[in-house]
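Many introductory courses stop at the sequence. We go one step further.
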Amino acid sequence: MKRNCLVIILCLLLCIMAGASASIASLDEVLSPLLDGPDAVRMSVNLTAKTLMPFDDIRLDLINRILKHLQLNVLLENNAGDALAAFELLLGGDTLFEVTEQYSGGAYLLQTSLLKNRMLFSTQASPMDTLLASSEEEPVIDEESLDPNTSDVEEAFDMLAAVDEIRGCYRDLIDKTVPLTEKNTVSYSIENIGRGRISYVAKLTTGQSTELLSELRALISCGMDAEYREELSRVTFARGFTVALYQNADGEDISVYIRGTIVYPDGDRRSLKWQWSFTPDDVTQTFLYQVSREEGRRDTRNIDAILTRTGNQDGFALECETTANLRRGGMNELSTLTLDLAVGTGEIKTCSGSVTRVTSGTYNGDDLDEITTGVSVDLSLPQADSAAELTGTATYRQIKNDTVTTELELSFVQASVAVSDNAQSESTLVEISILPADPSAAGEAAQTPTETVEESQAVQPEFLVGTPPLGLYDYEIPLEMITINMDTTARRVHRSLMNEAAQRLAGNLITAILNLPAEDRELLSDGMTEMDYAVFLAILE
C-alpha cells in the first residue's frame, strides 16, 4: 500500500483539475526507498500548476489561486502485515473528501465520505485501485487484440520488479537443470558483467520441458505486465529448449541463459532468447528478452535493461535504463525508462533524483507522438518516535513533441506549516473520522449489487433552474452501512460507484470554492456574464 503512494497522491489531486493527465507510470519507485522502512509516515501535500495545457497564463493563475488553498493530508501505517492508508483532501476550511483503506487478515476494506454508508471489501486488490481503474476506457477488442503481445509498451516490463522475482525463482530452475548437464570450460563474454569461464548447458527433451513447465513459465514471466503473464501461463516449450548457467573463474554464478521455441495453445510458435546476468557483488545486473513469431505477420517483443546499484553505510545510488520495443501488426512502439536516484539511509532518510519515460513509435509507417513523462524529487524523512513526516518536493512533467504540456509541483510540507499557511483550516493532520472495520465480519456481510443507479433511474432528478446537467443522477445514500464485495461485483457497478463519488466531490468542490476569498474564486466566474454568475451564486447559496 505504501509503494504506489505517489501515484495515488497525484491521481487524487489531479482528479479535481480538468485537463491534467493522470497517466503516471512507474513512479512508485521514487518513494518506496523512503516509505518501506518506518511503521508510520505522515505527509501534507500542496499542489502548484506550472504548466497545464491548453490553459493560458491567465487561466493558470486563476487555477493556482484555488490550488494554494488545497491540502492533501496522508497517513500510512504498516504493522506486522497490517496496513492502513488514510487520505484527507481540504480546500480552505472545507473537507472535500476523506478516505481510509485498511489491509488486514488478507482482505482490503475501504470507506470514504464520498460513498456514505458503503464499505468496499476485497480479498484480491485494493478497492481504491479498482475504483480508479473503473474510470478508464475498456479496451476495444479487435482483430489485433486477439493476437499475443498486445500489452501497453509503457507497462511491458519493470526491471526492479523483475530482479526481485528472478532472485526468488531462478534457482528452482537451475537446481533441476544442472544435474542434466556436464561442466564445461568456456570463454563467454557478457557485456557489462565480465567473462563466463564455466558453463552448464542443458538441451531439454520434450518430456523434460514438460516436467519443468512451471519453473520455465515463472522465469520468463518475471517483470512482465499482467496481460503478457497471462499469455505466458499457457505456453509450452519445444524439444531442444536450452537452459544454461554461466559462472566466472571462481565458480560464482554470473548469468542464466535460456533459448528455444515457445508454443501457444493454437500452435503459434515463437523463438525466445532470455538472459539475466549479474556481477558477483550484485552492483550491476542486465536483462535481455527477445521473442518473435516464427511465421506470419511481424510480431516481436524486445527488452534490454541494465541496473546499477552502488552504496555504503550512508546510502546507495540506483541507476536503471530499460528499453522496450513492441511490434504487432502495423504498430511499432518504443519506450525507454531511465531511473536515477540517490538514497540516504542515515537518521534522516533522503531521496533525490528522477524517473523519466520516453515513448514513441509508428503505426502503419506513420510517426506517433513522442511523449516524455517524468518526476524529479528531493525528499527527506527524519526518524520519529511516532509517525515520521515526509517533506520536500516532487515535480511531474509531461512533454509532447518537444512542447511542455504539463508541469505540476508537489510540495510535501510540515503539518505545522500547512496549518499556519491555511488559516481557514482548523483540522489537524489526518484526523480521519471514518474508522476501519473487522475484515472477517465484513466478508460475511459483503453484498454483490447487480443494478446501478444509471440503469434504474429512468427520470433525471429535478434541477433548481433550467435543465439538469448531462450525467446528473440522484444517488441515494443507504440508511444503514452496507458492505460491497468488489471481487464479485461487475465493472459497471464499480464505474457507477466512481461516478457517484465524482459527482459528490464536484458538489463539495464548488461549495468549497465559494467559501474562499472573493479574489481567489474568480475561476468560477471566468467566462460567465455578471448575471449568469449572480444566478449561479444564488443557486449554490
